[in-house]
Write the structure tokens for this entry.
Amino acid sequence: MRIETHGLSATAGGRTILTDVNLAIRPGAFTGLIGPNGAGKTTLLRLLAGLAEPAAGRVTYDGRSAAQVGRRALARGIAYLPQSGPVHWPLRAEALVMLGRLPHRGPLGGITAADRAAVERALSIADAAHLRGRIVGTLSGGERMRVLLARALATEAPILLADEPVAALDPGHQLACMALLRDTARQGSGVVAVLHDLTLASRFCDRLILLSEGGVRADGPPGRVLTDDTLRAAYGIAVHRGEAGGEPFLLPWHALPSPNSVTETTR
Amino acid sequence: MSRDSRIPYAALAAGLTGLALALCAVSAAVGYVPFDLGAALSDWLAGRPTLAALVLAELRLPRALLGLLVGFSLGLTGAAMQGWLRNPLAEPGLVGVSSAAALGAVIVFYSGLSAALSLALPLGGMAGAATAAILLNLMAARGAGTTALVIGGIAINSLAGSLTALALNLAPNPYAALKIVFWLMGSLADRGTDQLWLVLPPMLAGWALCLSGARALDALTLGEDAARSLGFDLTGLRVRLIAGAALAVGSAVSVTGAVGFVGLVAPHLMRPLAGARPGRLLLLAGLAGACLTLAADIAVRLLPTRPELKLGVVTALIGAPFLIVLIARLRREEA
């Protein structure tokens, strides 16, 4: 599935969050959606998922609107992992992952062998098979994220949209989660993740979309997006650059005093 | 998915159904006059109009079956409301339908219509519940979120409650007020077949509406955005659940008055056995609600107190401490 936005604008509480966003999301790439707080990353991700109505413009899925695609077909095409991933009842991990199969099941149809196979694949990809019998509320943050990722992967949708999947994880789990998302894209899915960690984003993503001041400030491979000028303008930061094992990396190093950055970050 | 609970779902549902039917039979056999259930049953089935057959067909069976229907309605809608709001404190009357139904019945009492027509009381109750459901759906159509709807339900609850109190306050004589108070306490005594037939269709419709939301309630475990991304129409779910609760609980309250705690306790009892899955919980909580209501209604007739204790009083007396123990135990298990 190919998602395109055409002149997309979004408002919240009378404030314009996004204006005239034109993007295309294709399968086979891991895209990082970055930008300062309040830049509209979550808003854009929800618009891409068809969960919010744009103030202007439209989102198309293989050229068709969400209404034309239909609710259930869209659910089979796009897996969405919300920020912080609430789990409201003490379900076992396996039952939670099975929820990802709901778009594939008929109104009265039971769980099929195909559903079980997809759940097994998702559990194994997310390295969560040993957690299947655990109650989700008793899992650690890293285990919990693996189970939630398995839930999203179990849908086996061509597009995976994840809102801050690594935000609450320790460094080891962050690296494992980023590698998992990259591998998922290598298998042919289109993966879009909202990210705050520029070091991880530049290292793992094929493409970065930098949102700032209501629009797309830069869009392309990490090396082209994360330039000193762009980072100063969007985040008000200077970065430290280096190289490890032949791979370039960057680290946010200090904040620059700029009126622009102050208004952006205190929103 | 037998891993999720130690007892398979089908066996649980079948076992609870068997228990509910057995309690129905016990309920039909228990009463104030000595009664040979076997003889009455054979007389009734053979069409012999003996006194025993009449007592069975016109008094005992309607009471037992109403207990089953009312209990199932309360348990099912309780589970549906808890799943929908993702809150274990939600109960069937949360959206205001119970108290609106009670108010409707009280208005009928007050106006004297109930003396003229035996079905006026339940009809008034159903009109009250329908009014509450229409009000809530109007609020929802104006874009109120779930929290706003719950607050709206609380507002309807307290408005209906205060209007009921007003009716009591202005009651023409103490006897009328007492009659209303007694009715409000909830009872299955002296209900007949006409009431049974009146509430059966709306209850069945309400059950179907609630049960149709099972998959969406499962998906809501992950929050509203994730549920929608899994292909569920939450607006449609809301309309179905409010209408379902109004039909099922509204008609239940219309014939029995307020029977508290069943709708709150039944889902809690069954949740561990359902692997905490909200969709799977619906049917089990309904069956558990039926068992609890029938057991309580048997208890009021076996207890030696005269006048007979009201069903709603017994369910609340047993239900409230039970809920406290249950919650304390759940907290220990989670810790």
Residues 261-267 of chain A have pLDDT under 50 and may be disordered. The interface with chain B takes residues 46, 49-51, 71-72, 74-76, 78-82, 85-92, 94-96, 98-100, 102-103, 105, 107, 111, 132-133, 135, 137, 151, 155 of chain A (CB under 8 Å). The radius of gyration of chain A is 19 Å. The longest helix of chain A spans residues 171-186.
